[in-house]
Every structure is written in structure tokens, then in C-alpha cells.
Specification:
The structure is a homodimer. By secondary structure, the first copy, chain A, is an alpha+beta fold. Helix content of chain A is about 15%, strand content about 35%. The two termini of chain A are about 30 Å apart.
Chain lengths: ~180, ~180
């Protein structure tokens, strides 16, 4: 941040009175501009035991596979955001179920919140942000071509839980970006 | 947002190509500035069956009671954020436990993530953002003087679960601000 979104003057980086961290403070109007982690919502959507996967048409990680997920919008719940991402990326209508994983992606200043889901109707297709969409059985998951560590973590915990007949909530913290390739 | 935080030019509100919602778009550099819900992390911290409550020294809802909670910072996990808020508001060191509630505070564009916690050491005190801090037994909770609906929801579910000997995760969505008074 270089300029104040409120008044357009230059911002300076300093610790405001009563605070303990450096913030972006406007040199003219004095407004303090905080930067906080962004929420990403997504889901592992099952149909007949197979899992909905999308190959990304957009950066970052274009060409790699993911479960439907994206930035949460104002005015929606996490469950609504996860369902919307399924609609946008995979033209799929899902019922969002229990929470599966919360992954702190510290280097990206994001928190990924991943639910379980089931198909509300069997159709799906290729959304504008996807190159390809498919239902994958467990042995068909392209582990080496998954886009993000949070997706790997979520799918592993999902599959372990499914095999064990349980639906737990799992936490992880990731501190480094994946190697690009 | 009136001015572009990157280049300082005026922003206009329009739907960018490939998007479906109006965004703040810079009239000069073209940068799209998204606004997403902010995360608040907090906890219900127990000591000997009593619950840690803080009377707020700051707006909004100065003078009303809350569990320790506040905006998550970049670079920390939700659990670390909840523990930090206990330290700042109540000078208490806690061990953060299982997730208790996720409350979508839609009108405020916030998601409140509330954990269970226990005291790691028995001391506590009055942090700079608090007027008063106390341990309250269930019958001592000042329900009519709680600061936010998300705190009411979290404490009710926490107490129901505790009485039933379980630790579930509960969701809620709140669409209106509390009546001021």
C-alpha cells in the first residue's frame, strides 16, 4: 500500500499509538489501514465415492488440479462460498456438509476453509476458471499435479477419515509456497 | 475506497471483465481491489469451571462484556490469534483447544472463529483494551450486557455442550447489528 484509499495521500509504515505492530498510516488524514488474512472457502465434493477435481485455467498454478475453492465474498457464509465455487468452477450444485480442514497458509496470508460436500444433482461441467473438470476415484487423484499444499492436506485427511468412517476437523499451518513446476 | 492504494488515482466501481460483482477498479493503473470478510479469533477460556470475561474499554460496545477476541493478524494461526487476544485483553496465558463456533457476522463483513481454551497458568489481569476482567460461573454471566450476538451464541453453545459432555462445532449467521444501549 502506497496511498491512502480514503484520501489519496501517501501512507507511511509506523506503529500507531496503543498498537504493537507497524501499520500503513496515512500521512494526511491519519487513517490506519490494517491488512488481515483472507478467507478461501472450498470443498471436497463426492459423487458415488468419486471426488470432484478441476484443472485450473487461471494463475496461480494454471494447469494444476484442485478441489473447487476461492476467495470468500462479503455477504455470504463459508458454506455458501464453497457451494458458489463449485458452481463457478465445475457447474456443480452441491450440498455442503461438515467442515474437513482449516489450513493456515501463512506465506500467502490466507486461511483455507475446506468442507465436505455431496452432489445435489448429478450434472457438472467445465466452468470458465477451469480447463477440465472430472470425478476422480481415490486411485485416480493426480497427487503430483495438485495445485496447492492445502488441497493435498485436505484430500489426505478426507480420505483417511472416509476410510475410518468418521468426519473430523483437521488443522494445518503451511509456511512456504509450493515449488513451481 | 476512493483512491487506488497502489498508484493513488481515483477508483471507480464497476464489474471487471470475467467477474460478476462490482469491484473497486483503479481508473489509471486498472488494479482491482477486492474487499473480503475479516477474521476475528477468540475463545471461551475456562478456569475451575468459570469463564474468562472482559468488559470492553474500547468501541464498539464499550462497557459491555465479551470473551477475549479480536482481528487475526497476518502470519499467525487462528489458535495463536485467540491466545494472543487472551494475553492482550486479560493478561492470561491459555491453551487453545477445540473449535466451538464459527459465526458469520454478515452485516459487519466478519467471520468470528471461537475456540475452547483452558488456563495454562492461573494468573490474569486487566489488559489495556479492558475496563474489568473476571472469571464468571455460569449463573454469573451478564447475558443482557454481552457486547455481541456472536458472544451470546458461542457461550450458549459452549455451556450446552459442557452440560452434555461434548465438544461440537456450531455455525451461525447474523445479519443485523445488535441494538445499541
Amino acid at each position: 500500500m502506497n496511498f491512502c484509499p480514503s484520501c489519496g495521500a501517501a501512507v507511511v509504515r509506523r506503529i500507531p499509538a496503543g498498537d504493537h505492530l507497524p501499520r500503513d498510516v496515512c500521512s494526511a488524514c491519519g487513517a490506519v489501514h490494517y491488512h488481515n488474512p483472507k478467507l478461501v472457502a472450498g470443498c471436497v465434493a463426492e459423487s458415488g465415492g468419486r471426488i470432484l477435481l478441476c484443472r485450473r485455467a487461471i494463475e496461480p498454478r494454471r494447469g494444476f488440479w484442485t478441489v473447487p475453492a476461492g476467495f470468500m465474498e462479503n455477504g455470504e457464509t463459508l458454506q455458501q462460498a464453497a457451494a458458489r465455487e463449485c458452481q463457478e468452477e465445475a457447474l456443480a450444485q452441491v450440498e455442503v456438509g461438515r467442515l474437513c480442514a482449516i489450513v493456515h497458509v501463512l506465506h500467502a496470508q490466507q486461511v483455507h476453509v475446506m468442507f465436505r460436500a455431496t452432489f445435489a444433482s448429478p450434472e457438472f461441467g467445465v466452468g470458465v476458471e477451469s480447463l477440465e473438470v472430472k470425478l476422480a476415484a481415490e486411485h485416480e487423484i493426480p497427487w503430483a499435479e495438485l495445485a496447492f499444499p492445502s488441497v493435498v492436506f485436505t484430500l489426505r485427511r478426507f480420505l483417511e477419515d472416509r476410510a475410518a468412517g468418521r468426519e473430523e476437523l483437521h488443522f494445518a499451518a503451511i509456511e512456504r509456497p509450493p515449488a513451481q513446476g
